[in-house]
Design a protein that fits this description.
By secondary structure, the protein is of the alpha/beta class. Helices cover about 30% and strands about 20% of the residues. The strands form four sheets. It has a nine-stranded mixed sheet with strand order 1-4-3-2-5-11-7-14-6, sandwiched between helices. A two-stranded antiparallel sheet has the order 8-15. The N terminus is likely disordered.
Amino acid sequence: MWRPQHRATRFDNSRKNEMKFLRMIWRELRDSGFTLTRVLFPVFLSGVMGTLLTHRTGPARSRRGSDLIAVVPYYGNSSLLPSFLAHHRSLGVDLFVFLDLSAERELSAHVAEEADCAIWLARNTTRSKRTLHWLNFLRARYATGHWCLSIEPCDFVVFYRSETRTIKDLIEFAQTEGSRQLYAVAIEMYGERPAAEIRLAAGQNPFELLSYFDPHGYVTATPGRYGNVMIRGGPQRRALHAARSSALNRMPLVKWKWFFTYAASTRLLMPRRVNRPHRSAHTSPTICLLCFAQLNDDATLRRAAESEARETVRDGGGSPYRGAARLRQLALKTEDSVRFKSSADLAQCGLINPGQWF
């Protein structure tokens, strides 16, 4: 009588654990604003689109549970790559997953020898409207259960005291506060003369050529229906289209889960709760993406704009690439421009929020 009773008890406990796990999953989906079309369908679509990709070189999956993964679309112009890789390696990125969207598919010629770089290509197609789903597929493949950094080769991550600390240090602090994502503002960098007159040599530090940014003139829009807090400003708002300038808000650093998907580049993330910049009880630290897109040529900017034009949800605020080609022709420096020297400059201007991070 004792042995069957023991087995039944063990079976009942197993069923209880399974039901507890399923209830936990359902609560998380429900609290995330779960709906079939907004959450599960994009996940399904990204998985289907992933079958159109082929692995070219590098690790096929993440190697360690503690790896910080960067998923990066590559549109062309390899001159920024050496500085981009060096900058983010120093900040603690363990693996770079590139989607080669360049016209010549030449990325493997530049980073194939790098052990921490994986390259994927679209098989028999380069249709830009699929880019968003391809990148979501790569995030799900490599970054599920990891912290994932979604940036581009012209983006350089900066956070308060990033000169002496790493992204993993910031992640550790964010986790102690209960945060699973970090909000960012994209800051467009420019030089003393039009970027079209400047040529970046391979491996040259872009900070030497485009060292200025706008310290003020940024506005925050009312949070959208998906909780995304939209920020506009910078040279595009000042010099091109003040009424409807491109959105500069980003959610680039996220503890990735299998049902997460970006719906408008990295400006809008589903489910909607992940778009909150701060915890309800206090102000969380934020980061900046210093953007050197103006160092790209017009062909690269055109490919990037085409790839970012396809959005699952029309609440993203528009891509900054659409105005970058025009900005390249303009002298943007004014008497109010600030030369970037360290992350303290961004904090003093209110573009970085240190929170309780010291």
